[in-house]
Amino acid sequence: MAVITLVLAAGAIVIFNLQQAGHHPLKIRRELRKF
Predict the structure, then answer these.
(1) Which of 7, 8, 9, 33 has its CA 20 to 30 A from that of 1?
(2) Residue 19 half-sphere exposure toward CB, CA atoms < 13 A
(3) C-alpha 27, offset from chain centre
């Protein structure tokens, strides 16, 4: 359950940052690779 919570939290942060900066799909993939 803890892992799922971390994934959801990380995903929410990434989505929020993307909405603020308006990154391209390639940059989104790079962000996902960090996790």
Answers:
(1) 33
(2) 6
(3) 10
Residue-range definition of the domain harbouring residue 13: 2-34
The DSSP output letter for 14 is: H
What global pTM score does this model have?
0.45
Burial class (CB in 10 A: 0-12, 13-18, 19+), 5: exposed
How many domains does the chain fold into?
Answer: 1
Q: What is the pLDDT of residue 28?
A: 64
Residue pLDDT, tens place only, 1-35: 789 998 899 888 888 877 776 656 666 677 677 66
